[in-house]
Every structure is written in C-alpha cells, then in structure tokens.
Amino acid sequence: MPYTDMYAQKQVTAEEAVKSVKSGDWVDYGWCLGHPVASDKALATRAGELSDVKVRGGIALWMPEIFAIPNPENHFTWNAWHCSGIDRKIIDMGCGYYGPMRYSELPRFYRESVDPVDVAMFQVAPMDEHGYFNFGPQASHMMAVCEQAKVIIVEVNENMPRCLGGNEEAIHISQVDRIVEGSNPPLPQMNSAALSEVDKKVAELIVEEIPNGACLQLGIGGMPNAVGSLIAESDLKDLGVHTEMYVDAFVEMSKRGKINGSRKNIDRFRQVFAFAAGTQKMYDFIHNNPEVMSCPVDYCNDVRKVAMIDNFISINNAVEIDLFSQVSSESAGIRHISGTGGQLDFVMGAYLSNGGKSFICLSSTYSRGGEVKSRIVPTLSPGSIVTDSRTCVQWVVTEFGKVNLKGKSTWERTEALISIAHPDFRDELIKDAENMKIWRNSNRI
Asked: Domain Acetyl-CoA hydrolase/transferase C-terminal: where (predicted)?
C-alpha cells in the first residue's frame, strides 16, 4: 500500500485520537519540543471522564493543557524525567513528581524497568517520501518509548526541524497507529539570558584550558553559553561537538568556523546531540543539516563513548559545592530544580578521555531575600541531592579562580575551594572547616 494511502487511513482528529486513553493509563508525552499540543488540548477536554492518568514527559517549555484545568490533580499526574521551570510549577501544584535518573539510562528504563506505555503521543516532523516521521530535535529516548507503547499517536507539526542522525531518529508510518495534523504551532524560543560579568570571567578561565581540536559538551545555563560565546570569538580551531543538549552557542561557533569535527576519534565531522532547544536560528541550522547528528541519549551520554574522544571538554553548572567537594546541581535543599541529566556521565567520561577535562562552574555567591549567600558551603544544604560525588569532581571554577581537585586530600580540597570562594566568606568557611577537622593551621600560611 502506498504510504499516502496508509497516511489517509490513519489520519484522525485529535479528539478521536485521544479516545485511546483510559483511566489508570500510563501516557507518554515524549520530550521537550516534542510534547503534543493538539492532542494534549483534546485530552484536557476529557478530564471529567478520566482519573489516575499518569503522564511522562520532561523539560516542558510550555504548560500542558491537562494542567490548566480545574483540579488537575484529580485526573492527571505528571512524571518528569528532567525539570524546567514549567515542570517545577506542576510539581509545586501538587500534580507531579521527578523521576531520578542518569539520562543515559532512560532508553533502558523504558525497555526494562518502567510500567508499559499505554499511549504515546508526541509531535513529529511531516512524513518524508519513505514513510518516516522524524522525531525532530529530540531523538533522546523516543524509539524506546515507541517500542513499548501499545498505541502510538504522532502529531505532525510542519515547523518541526527534520534532524538527521545515525539511528533511532525517526519512526515509520507502519509503526504508527494514529496521525493527527496539528495547527503547526511555532516552536518555543529558548533565548539565552544576557551574560553577566561573572559569567564572562568564569568563561575566560575555562577557555584558556581548551586546546585546538577539543570536543565540547556544554550544559544548559548562562556560564556554559558564555564559554561558547567566548570560543566563537577566540582563535581556537578544529573543535568537535558531542553533547547531550544542542544550544545556540554551537551554532555561533559553527558559523564562525570554529567547529569542523576533523579531530574527533568517532563520528568525525559530525556534531552529535540527544536533544535541542533554543532560538529559531538554531532550529533552522539543524534542519536537514548533515553536519549535525541526532542520536539516542544512551549513545550521546554513554561514558564509554565520551571516553573514546580525545581532549573531551565537559562544562556544566552547579547550585552549590561543599568543602568535601560534593556537587549539587539539581536541588536546593529539598526543593527540586532540574535533575541529574547527563552531568555525572560527562564528568566521568571527560576525565577518562585522553587529555580530557571536566569543569563544574558556578558563581561564588547568590542572593536570596536580599541576602547574599555563598555557593561554596561547609556541607550541602539539608536535603540537597549530590549530583557529582567528591571522587568524580575534577575542575571547579568561580569568578575568583579555578582549582583541580583530583589527587587532593580533604584538607587540600578545602584549601583549594576556599581560595575560589568570595573573599567575604573565606574566614567563615575556614572556621567551619576547622570545626569539621578538614583544615589545619599551616593552611593559613
């Protein structure tokens, strides 16, 4: 049967498609830009006849309609694999929870561990001439979701970039149960915040550690993007990309001729990523671009793959770090912020890389309620999640300097971290370190 005929047979309205959802079902919304729009709205209209519907998603960039209804907690529960501000808001509403994970394990979770997917609904690019719907910039774990789904609903959006890849970046129409043609909403724009002087100073300290031919991974946030902006203006050349999240900074570096991937040990000349979110400039750049390679996250974030790439440079943010060098990047006390994501994988993989370096960057202070507080603390705030154990941390950078913690004892680590803390907090941190018996008088010299 011609694919066009198969398409016509499977095409239904969003309202018809979501009739597949029943009370008690596990429903999967996919990931980030792939979350459904028309199907989500149609499902919200059915709320009154549904209860205990458990929905999986992550890095939401807009509020799902199923949580814009009265008393959504009576009908739907959100299960986020990684949190954006929207995901946090849903959790604060009492309608959801975070699913702890190393992001690299997510495809395996679906194939081995989680409850079966009763219905999967997500946005895709239009079908190509071979009958494939591209997942867009979120190959991530989507094939694993589809393999476990009893019903697959694809929602076509003509604005979704078609991202080329190595494998698992598209689904064939023969595997799809229902096709919804949405209203083709524009993709949300995720603009980078203006860079602060602190961001720029941290970026300068990191960029001077990057050699020509290095392969880059940038985490989300101002500081990693600042590094990317500075690289774009630098004399560095022959850089490669192997990253979890593709961001606008990579586009700027590419257009400035800094990235060609010629020195990568694997996937030469290709910029590898698991998902992407940014501005229209970035969506246009990755569309049908053979230079970029959309791959499942168990490939992109695999510590073993990362370690194969020489001079791998991993750059990620943190919420706080304690004097024992434990890094928390996903919560502030018991308040959940984001998730482990791929940070731990890249911290470990970069260190195992020949010539590789892992950087955890953070501002020395932050303000809360008008009070300035140190991000370098004696011990993590009660309830804070340890994202990177002290044994894994390599470089730590603030605007006051950078230190390599590998090979250092507890008191050497303490000394190093206090040296890059804000000067206003150093004496207090010394007293705390003395009380914890990880400081000695000779450190004062």
From this structure: 278-433
